[in-house]
Amino acid sequence: MGSTRRLRLALMSSAFITASLCAAPALAQQATETEQASSVDDIVVTARRREESLKDVPVAVTAVTSERLEQTGAADITTLQQQTPNATVQIARGTNSTLTSFIRGVGQQDPLWGFEPGVGLYVDDVYVARPQGAVLDIFDIERLEVLRGPQGTLYGRNTIGGAIKYVTKRLGQDPELTLKGAYGSYNQVDLIASGSTPLNDTLRIGGAIARYTRDGYGTNLTTGAEHYNKDVTASRLSVEWTPSDNLFFRLAGDMTTDESNARHGYRLKAPMTNGVYDTRAGIGDDGYVRTRGLSFTGEWNVSDALTFKSVTAWRDGDTKGDGIDFDGLPQPILDIPGYYADRQFTQEFQLLFEGERWQGVAGVFYMDASAEGAFDTVVGLANLTTFTGGKVDTESFAVFADFSYDLTDQLSLSVGGRWTKDKKSVDQLRQNYLGIKSPFFHNLAAIPLGAPLTDYTNSDDYSEFTPRVSVSYKFTPELTGYASYGRGFKSGGFDMRGDASLYPETINGYQPELVDTYEIGLKGSLLDRRINFATALFKSEYTDQQITSQFFIPPTSVVSFVDNAGSSEIWGWELEASARITDSFIPRLTLGYLDAKFNEFVTFNPLTGKRENMADQRHFQNTPDWTANIALPYSFDLGDRGSVVFTPTASYRGATQMFETPIPLLDQGAYWLYDATLMWTSPDARYRVSLAGRNLSDERYRAGGYNFPAPITGDSVIGFYGAPRTVTLGVTARF
């Protein structure tokens, strides 16, 4: 990072801390909504599967309430990238609703079926196995939680980087109706209706429906279609039954349909378009993603000390459309039509304990999941198509427990562990065809070219015990320190792009990866709760990293290799803080620093045809060294005319590589984003009007890309970009 940027971050931090410590006592008034949203004590989280005050949890957690989301003009969960230290949460390359998420350098960029994420996504207590359709729009929500570091004990499945929880609201006892509407740049129209009503003293029903449309930021100059547009419909329905004080049941269903046009990249090598949001793609514009789910939750308070909980859930998803044009030109030089589908069934039982000096949770988890897909790699200049298709079935079983005991009034010890066993079965086919597209994608005239490159079935089992232990100490009732150790486990699998003709070992798959993280932290309040903060220092030892590498092998092959190639060390530091300068001015600061370095990176070198340690030539992807965010909300009390909150924010993200191999033309340099929201609320809180500006400096920044620079692939180095400057006017009415 350049000296100028370091200076800006240092000045920002110094100004925040100095202003906080030197703040004069303000009038002792009742805390406003803004104060409540920024206070560590006032936020209750479920990071350890039970409700606890944020300041008492020995885990690095970012909790963003619905109030803060409104104040910052957030539209979907990618807002967490700006509000969470050391996190990447963004829309994946070539899509409108597939999620790319990294926490503390650990994650998953490749959303291909069969690959496991490194960050677990949960809607309430339901695990979402696939990233397709996971860019969740924010509606009918209570808060978002980001748990940083391995969560292998309580969340377990593929949470070696951390977990993101989307927590919805429980239905109220009184009839409620909320209507929201918004209009913004690029003809953005958002319409949301949510509400609930009691049917009798014990039964309530509620739901929400949302419609999001927006013209494209750019245009497909070949077809005239919108590019980077939005066309999403989302809905949720739930029924809650409380037959007695000790019983609670909830049946919930949701569905999201995304019919936004396919996204194609901007050519960085020999560009042929007018702007970064334009394309000249010829593969087509149709896109379709549908996800849906059904869950049933039951809670039985057996006694004051014991609660039994069951969560049963089913989800499925489909992704169709014309695919991605990798070359960004009208001709089929490098086109990738594709299809994806997945389904999952999960069952979890939990037993929660609570005594005078101890508390904990134990349980079992089961998942039966299947993911399948197919895609063509069309190399038009060679009149060649490589078809790749297959299916992965996963059966997972785990038992877990986590207990905390107060050794004294100040000192607490937590011990937990999880044993997981996964079984994966794979069926994969890779075949060359002469012609443009394969028979699977409707070219029945395509001619098979030789024997299949890959054609096999296989299965493997993976198991691991992941412990966690932490010690926390209350220095004062408002200040808690902790030290912890935790292990994360990400399941092994099979490379669904694997070419056995070039890399025979692909049929054996790859093994699980592990992360061991050591962390010390301090969180709580100072100066009569005028400063609230949480800070953590950590070291992660990352072994058997699953690295995906894609190469162009002359004359016409694009091949993939997945290896347990890497081991590395990741050092980091995080700070989240807010300061009540006055009752009207409560700034917030977030800082994150990462130093991630490969110790070993053994992989296939296409230049030599051998496996070599290339650690000195590789760096972490999607892992900037510094991330920062500062928000300066200022509230104005207008008396009987309501109140106004003005929230300007600035966020910083350091330089980022798209892949482990540096690609100067594609990699993204450091940048700042500036946002601001002005929000008026009526005296009775029934009406709200907001004006939100995002990316006010109109920064152009890449959020993803592909790199196939050979002439036969059309010099295809392409980038996908974050949203330009937008302004949105929103109105909310509550009845």
TrEMBL record:
Keywords: Cell outer membrane, Ion transport, Iron, Iron transport, Membrane, Receptor, Signal, TonB box, Transmembrane, Transmembrane beta strand, Transport
Family: Belongs to the TonB-dependent receptor family.
Protein known as: Iron complex outermembrane receptor protein
Residue ranges of domain TonB-dependent receptor-like beta-barrel in the record: 257-696
Location (main, coarse): membrane
Parts of the chain that traverse the membrane: none
Xref: CDD domains: ligand_gated_channel (cd01347)
InterPro entries reported in the protein's UniProt record: Beta-barrel_TonB, Beta-barrel_TonB_sf, Plug_dom, TonB-dep_rcpt-like
The keyword Signal is assigned to this record: yes
Subcellular location(s) per record: Cell outer membrane
Pfam family membership, one: Plug
Domain named TonB-dependent receptor plug: residues: 54-163
Topological relation to the membrane, as annotated: Multi-pass membrane protein
Signal sequence, renumbered to the chain: 1-28
Gene source species: Brevundimonas faecalis
